[in-house]
Amino acid sequence: MDFSLLAFYVFAGVAALAGLGVVTVRNAVHAALLLVLTFFSVACIWLLAEAEFLAIALVLVYVGAVMVLFLFVVMMLDIKPGTGREGVARHLPVAIAIAIVMALEMLALIGVQRVEQVFGSTDPAAAAGGNTKWLGMALFTDYLYPFEIAAVILTVAIIAAIMLTLRRRANTKHQDPARQVMVRREDRVRIVKMDAESKGGEQ
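== NADH-quinone oxidoreductase subunit J ==
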């Protein structure tokens, strides 16, 4: 058994155990951290299969954006007045343990020199000079039109989401920067002159 196959079994085992922990732990923050570890372990398996683009996309999109945002939302919903940063210290040991496992996985990947090709030497990605280069050439030549259509659809979806979010709601206050800039001193402060009055028994 070579080192690459051993690394595959280790990463697959970590991903399976972390995925099982996601559905079994009761703490939502711990479940989110375990899901981050699951995604990271799967990305390491993609790297072992020489699918660098899929591994990088998985880390950047899911681990670096979606799950981090989800973790922030979960922690914000768990905020209680007056507790300060008590919740952060409570989840810190689990976060440190997961970070150590991810670091060990990266060190194991550095030790892997070459992954054996399962389907022989006729891999188009290897012939094109790498997985990322081959995918880029195929995406911007053979599949350029579907790629542009997907970009337009995503742009329309973003605009629609912004329009739905910025709609006027009743009983809400909105700022008008143009009116704030044009305000005058007389509109903010009014000086009223009143005669002094004495209370009963005072001169």
